[in-house]
Write a structure and sequence with these properties.
The protein is an alpha/beta fold. Among the domains are: 1-65, no CATH class; 69-289, no CATH class. A six-stranded mixed β-sheet has the order 1-2-4-3-5-8, sandwiched between helices. It has a three-stranded mixed β-sheet with strand order 9-10-11, with helices on one face. Helix content is 38%, strand content 13%. The chain is globular, with a radius of gyration of 22 Å. Residues 157-292 form the Alpha/beta hydrolase fold-3 domain. It comes from Chaetomidium leptoderma. Belongs to the 'GDXG' lipolytic enzyme family.
Amino acid sequence: MDSPLAVAGFVLSKIPVLLKTVLFHTLSLSPTCHKWTLRTELTVTMLREFFTNAPPSTITKQQAMFLTDHGVKGSIWVSKAAFPEPPDAALRNVLYKAIRDLGAGGEEYTKPNLQPVEGEWVGYRAGVKANAPEPTGLSEREKYEHLVRDMKTDMTLLYFHGGSYYLMDPVSTRPLMEKYATLSGGSVFLVRYRLAPQSPFPAALLDALVAYLSLLYPPPGSFHKPIPASRIVLGGDSARGNLASVLLQTLLQLHRNVPAGETPTVTFHGATVPVPLPLPAAATLSSPSMDLTRCMQGSESQAIWDYLPPPSFSPAHSSPPCAIWPSDPACAELFCEGSALCHPLVPPRSPFVGGAFAQRAARDGVRIVWEQYEAMPHCFSQVLEGSVEGEACFASWEKFMRVVGEKPSEVATRGAFITARTVERTSVDVCNLLDMSQEDILNYMQRGRRAIVERFTKTMAS
């Protein structure tokens, strides 16, 4: 669906499905009607049809569909910026060492070059209506200066938007960034990382690392002044909740690698930067995709609660061939080589999957705030903005950000299960979220990785 006419035709073709959804919900015949509102039923149904029953489309067309910039309007400042690539390979080599040290050996991956990292500074624009046009005649630096003047706090959210690991949709993400900037009172830097399959693992991670260092140690020509790590929060949703997590894991690995009594350094745009790098104040994740082997996403029967395709579906095997996929040289998955699917920096620190990620971190002494919303689909707070569940999620996020910014010592590990519709909260023990061992989870992931590689091998042989 690469044209507005095709999209309109697809929507019209789904009117019978939507009418059936309304009827079944009204008569309490749908299996989800007691947990979902009619709005949720209709939204999930339409998204599910789009993701699973739309005409097949190439990866190239899917990427292009999300890259059109429709401009900026409303109570939001957007200042486009680009951080130049470091002139030497020191940072790149630091990342490769972390990958080697964390791997089991045998993982294959392409070593990407350093490139400029583009992005957008986003902030709340005070005193304008929702449909107000973006001011004309301002340079990107001037927009940034206006953004800073409207900030109420000095917190910066370094954000990696979702859209799986091969799509980028920064334009539709802007309203979400505006909301985060408004709730936190600070700024957001939305990173435009490199996409797979053109730039597979670890290109996006290298971009994320460059972006983080650029906030700490601004390269020449940057709009911003140095931002202390204590004022930076990493954030991400969906697949790039994964990226935020692996960036944090990379930073932690740099701390582990420091020999006793030594203070290693790395050169970054001519400045001598200490390694390990300072850690950010916190990380916030929304529906993070922690398992690229798709072995831990629940059974096919649980698909009724989401719009995402079931675990058996893969865009790598369902998309028609195009210039960028299948890749050359051939690769088992869009994001990485099949051998790397279980590397700790692909899913963050295997076997951390979903609740296991929070559980292991809490058991290791990391202060974790965990919330699980009953019967809610993927990234529900964004997809169902304005719903009682979505607003409850945003309210919790705002509270967390304010505590991190004003009284970080008061952040304490806690967990909650929030019921659908009533949003009643029940405390849960974050240290005991799953009745599975780490070894069991890793075995599941390895089994999923082998299945993906075997399917790829059969496809190549046919």
